[in-house]
Write a structure and sequence with these properties.
Main location: endoplasmic reticulum
Number of helices: 20
Pfam family, one: p450
Family: Belongs to the cytochrome P450 family.
Distance between the termini: 99 Å
Cofactor: heme
GO cellular component, one term: endoplasmic reticulum membrane
Strand order of the largest sheet: 1-2-7-4
Oligomer: single chain
Structural class: alpha+beta
Length: 507
């Protein structure tokens, strides 16, 4: 009996050999699959010459994080229209840097690729930024009323209040006779603004000493996502075990705690029947009210997962991208005092003796809008967007890509393409005069992307940039700090790795 039990307990040599053989077959099949996929992708990209690549690292070893933007622009000048960038042995992306190629891709309704968008899911969930297909269309249709003309009108006063808090802080800081780092303060201001406008939430985040925890978490997560892409750390199961993976998870918890508090407070308010009745009587609901009150044909509202995903998405996108746009706008005008003064004079002529902004004022800021657009040309808040081709595409020059390929619209490079923009490195607001704009390719300027998947909040962002610039120029003269020039870096939004430092002179 003991001998029989020992035989059963110990696997035979045949079983061990069979296990080893199956393991070897599995590895060989994976290797064959790898080679087939790589061969297929190489063939798909062979019509598009590009910089030489390493068989394993692709182009990653050639690109440093703080030089990637200019490196891709440089390669774009060498390889017309588009070129492949390999992130590793089997992950190429066709980098598009010409508006005619961009037009072809934007006309499609393709989904977002796994890299980088899948990497964002633990943070912002599957909201409008990540979704595709029918569910994306349903959410887009649901949320569009939150950016209705009449809703945006009521936000101007709230934006103004948030900007004035920031400017009051700056008045105290400039007594130190030091330059002010803008990005942190502008980020808190835009966070305060989006929370008031879209979530009806009074955060007082600009005045609380520890209120930048959410801003820091967003910065950390943005950096870590970019780091994962550069270092080919795509598999969650391995990444989550690393120090950076744990750091990312901790930052996600901080962000989720923040958004959960906003949601729960609004839910509590809506549970009061009188408050609910009052809110539903409003002509237009705000963003969070729409999410909480919406029902499908069967009377079922959004799931908690979908609700949290949209709030996380818009809490991030509604403040971080606009903060980038405003900060780089201030930097551009600090370099060109004549343009800055012309903006100031236009604003003064519109407002007269007022120090408040009204909805009707925004449409009159013609030259100011030109300056905003030119700053977004040079420094687009979102430098690139990606698509995963669900069907083959053929470009205007006859070259094509099969379904299953990934493409990236390099907005930063399109905005600096010498075929479209004369002297693209020079800041010149007159590029956006009506006559010059009319002559330009319709896909040459894409700060909010374009097509069906364009930025749903672009009018909100433009309004906030106008309000912020107008009120700031009434109080301060913006001057650069030559000792601390900004260093461009591409994370999820366009930042400066050492901040954006300006001297502010009280007017």
């Amino acid at each position: 009996m003991a001998s029989l039990l020992d035989t059963i307990a110990r696997p035979s040599a045949v079983v061990l050999q069979l296990s080893v053989l199956l393991g070897v077959i599995f590895v060989l099949l994976k290797a064959a699959q790898f080679c087939h996929k790589r061969k297929k992708l190489i063939k798909a990209m062979e019509a598009f010459p590009g910089p030489p690549k390493h068989w394993l690292y692709g182009h990653n070893h050639l690109i440093k994080a703080d030089k990637i933007l200019n490196q891709l622009v440089s390669w774009g000048e060498e390889y017309p229209y588009a070129f492949p960038r390999w992130f590793g042995p089997v992950l190429p992306s066709l980098i598009i840097h010409h508006p005619e190629y961009a037009k072809t891709i934007i006309a499609q309704t393709d989904s977002k690729p796994d890299v980088p968008y899948k990497l964002l899911v633990p943070w912002i969930g599957k909201g409008l930024l990540v979704l595709s297909g029918t569910k994306w269309f349903q959410h887009r249709k649901l949320l569009t009323p939150a950016f209705h003309y009449d809703v945006l009108k009521s936000y101007v006063a709230l934006m103004s209040d948030s900007v004035k808090v920031m400017l009051d802080k700056w008045e105290k800081k400039i007594t130190e006779r030091k330059s002010v780092e803008l990005f942190q303060d502008v980020s808190l201001m835009t966070l305060d603004s989006i929370m008031k406008c879209a979530f009806s939430y009074e955060s007082n985040c600009q005045m609380q000493s520890n209120s930048d925890y959410y801003i820091r978490a967003v910065y950390d997560m943005s950096y870590l996502v970019g780091d994962r892409i550069r270092n080919l750390s795509y598999m969650d199961v391995f990444y989550d075990l690393t120090g950076k993976g744990r750091e990312f998870q901790d930052a996600c918890k901080v962000a989720h705690t923040h958004t959960d508090r906003v949601i729960e407070e609004r839910k509590t308010l809506l549970s009061n029947e009188k408050e609910l009745e009052k809110i539903l009587k409003k002509r237009h609901l705000d963003f969070l009210d729409i999410l909480l009150c919406s029902k499908d044909a069967n009377g079922v509202g959004l799931s908690d997962e979908d609700l949290r995903a949209e709030v996380d998405t818009f809490m991030f996108e509604g403040h971080d991208t606009t903060a980038s746009g405003i900060s780089w706008l201030f930097y551009c005008l600090s370099l060109y005092p004549d343009y800055q003064q012309r903006c100031r004079e236009e604003i003064q002529s519109i407002l007269g003796d007022r120090d408040t902004i009204e909805w009707e004022d925004l449409g009159k800021m013609i030259y100011t809008t030109m300056c905003i657009k030119e700053s977004m040309r040079l420094f687009p808040p979102v430098p690139a967007v990606s698509r995963y081709l669900s069907k083959p595409v053929t470009f205007f020059d006859g070259r094509s890509l099969p379904a299953g390929c990934q493409v990236a619209l390099n907005i930063f490079a399109i905005h600096r393409n010498r075929d479209v923009w004369k002297d693209p490195e020079i800041y010149d607001p007159m590029r956006f005069s009506p006559e010059n704009s009319a002559q330009r390719h319709s896909y040459a300027f894409l700060p909010f992307s374009a097509g069906s998947r364009n930025c749903i909040g672009q009018q909100f962002a433009m309004n906030e940039m106008k309000v912020a610039l107008a009120l700031t120029l009434l109080r301060f003269e913006l001057c650069p700090d030559p000792a601390k020039p900004p260093t461009l870096t591409q994370q999820l939004v366009l930042r400066s790795s050492n901040g954006i430092h300006l001297h502010l002179k009280k007017i």
